[in-house]
Design brief:
Aminopeptidase, two-stranded antiparallel sheet, alpha/beta, single chain, about 30% helix, hydrolase
Length: about 260
């Protein structure tokens, strides 16, 4: 299994590109890597290592889902503070000047040309890679994220969020099946929802193409160790297989986990 450092600097990386199951796994925030040309965006080491820069544990879980379903995965190898691939170019938080409690000096007062350059270098190849997958008969998209247990000083009780935009087919099935497979507090559109701008990938590649889609948000204290990540991935695989089959997307039950 690849480590986050193995994909550093790659705008888009395929894992299990030839996977036979018609499901695309996507991990937009797989890496905290900031190219040297940005001089760390002026951030402290603490900020560069924090959740503000990436989604800890998400890439491992995404890979386990891809291999468990025998499905292709696309991941970004650049920190979301350089470009958040789950945001459109016109969104201010595609290159945020502040993320949670951290100011991002390297993103202050970016010029139109600077924003366009980052868009072309990082977002365009990533978006094109996901778009390319859509031409291979993909029938469902699953994006994988993690979130902090405490946000702006407020503890979060939710442990697993199942998010959707206007197409809730896969999310509905997962929310129905989750109680049979996990005791985690599992909620719809928590800790974020469409109103927070987090469903960009789902809308562009799923909703607009009539492809079933869902975004998974896992509280990152549940992903702190390899064993925890493995257990979470196995639980999600059980829910996903059942839910995908219920909405008419066939998954190989014998796929290696």
């Amino acid at each position: 299994m690849l480590r986050p450092e193995d994909i550093e600097g790659k705008p888009a990386l395929f894992v299990n590109r030839e996977g036979a199951t018609p499901v695309a796994i996507v991990c937009e925030h797989a890496s905290r890597f900031i190219p040297t040309e940005f001089d760390g965006l002026g951030l402290t080491e603490v900020a560069r290592e924090s959740h503000a820069a990436w989604d800890p544990g998400a890439f491992d879980v995404a890979q386990m889902l891809a291999h468990g379903l025998n499905a292709p995965l696309v991941a970004s190898g650049v920190s979301r503070l350089v470009y958040d691939c789950n945001r459109p170019p016109e969104a201010l938080d595609a290159m945020p000047a502040k993320s949670e409690q951290f100011d991002v000096p390297g993103n202050l007062a970016l010029t139109k040309a600077q924003r366009a350059a980052r868009t072309q270098t990082y977002y365009a190849p990533f978006c094109a890679s996901v778009t390319d997958l859509m031409t291979t008969g993909i029938e469902a998209i699953v994006t994988v994220h993690s979130f902090t247990p405490i946000y702006h000083g407020n503890p979060r009780a939710v442990e697993l969020g199942i998010l959707h935009d206007s197409d809730s087919r896969l999310a509905d099935a997962m929310l129905k099946n989750a109680p049979q497979e996990t005791t985690l507090l599992t909620l719809r559109n928590e800790p974020y929802g469409p109103e927070h701008g987090v469903t960009h990938t789902l809308k562009v590649h799923g909703v607009e193409n009539g492809i079933a889609n869902v975004m998974l948000e896992i509280r990152n204290d549940l992903l702190a160790t390899p064993q925890q990540r493995q257990e979470i991935a196995q639980m999600l695989l059980r829910i996903l297989r059942k839910s995908l089959n219920e909405i008419g997307v066939s998954t190989p039950q014998e796929a290696t986990e």
